[in-house]
Prior knowledge:
- Strand 5 (322-325) and strand 6 (332-335) form a beta hairpin.
- It contains 16 helices and 6 strands.
- It has a two-stranded antiparallel ribbon with strand order 1-2.
- It has helices at residues 2-30, 50-59, 66-75, 94-103, 122-132, 137-143, 147-156, 191-206, 210-215, 220-233, 240-252, 260-266, 277-280, 306-313, 338-347, 349-352, and strands at 40-44, 84-88, 112-115, 181-184, 322-325, 332-335.
- Helix content is 48%, strand content 7%.
- The protein is globular and about 90 Å long.
- It folds into 3 domains: 24-103, 2-Layer Sandwich (Dna Ligase, domain 1), CATH 3.30.1490; 112-207, no CATH class; 220-352, no CATH class.
Amino acid sequence: MKKYRKILLIISLIILCLVVTLILLYRSLISPVSHNATEKEVIISRGLSSSGIGSVLKENNLIKNDKFFVFYLKLNKVNDLKAGTYKLNESMSLKEIVKILREGNIINDEEITITFKEGINFREIAKVIDENTDNTEEDVLNTLKDQEYLNSLIEDYWFITDDILNKDIYYPLEGYLFPDTYNFMGRDVSVTEIFKKLLDQMGIILEPYKSQIERDNMNVHEILTLASIAEEEVSLANDRKNVISVFKNRIKNNMNLGSDITARYGVKLDDKRPLKQSEYDDVNPYNTRRLEFKGLPAGPIAMVSKDSIEASVNSVETEYLYFISNIETKETFFFKTSGEFEAKKKELEKVNAGY
């Protein structure tokens, strides 16, 4: 009997120690990161998941562990965190931060909201900024000519490399700014402040793919380039993996990509009219319609959504070499042979009106 009592006592002590350890760990993880009360402006974007919000808070050193943050929300049945721009500091406890995020952002009278839509190019980004802030389109585009600024971005962001310095690229940050709705303190916000928020968000979106990208044979610049073309080529996110598969297959077969979208971008055509033959034939670093143009264009051609990034990183393996979409229904058809493609193209001739 004494032996069993001793064993029971030891088990009880172990359980007690475990419980005490868990309690202490819990209290530690919900406590403030530091005594630093300096305010940090933090953006919680619309549609961001709990783990995504945790990543933002951890990146700003406002919580101790992003995985525990998700656990804390589930434990306390919190599912109503609100998007917005918040002023938080490291001296706040996890409970305080969650309370603020549940109450939502109190927008001041001067705060502005700007929406950047997926699929728009840098000329269109410049117009959006011009319309919503005190900056002009010229201010936006001139920022991209600042070599010192571009070099600082390469140092600050793991996913930005010397690829953006390629002299053939029209706009160095094309495809690197993440499309979403953002809040800013006022119309006097600087271009670099705007870029920082969009680049920070792109970093959050790309982070889960970082180790996979490092293992695979495609770099971020190539991934964003493919994603941007697929973004523009097809409307339905589910079709983009197949579209990217087509492009990869064409590259393997030493074929040109044959993308009208890149031809449009190459001649800086933003309206929706059909391309002229001279534009199809134009020699530039983006026009993959030219038969002699092999491989990817110089860089991305538009803002890319998370769906397109996912499609680019994890494209499917197919034998498709061609595709065409029905402009009215948005349905996309994929083919292995040029004969099949040409037949469908003829069938859709009236619907697609020259596209």
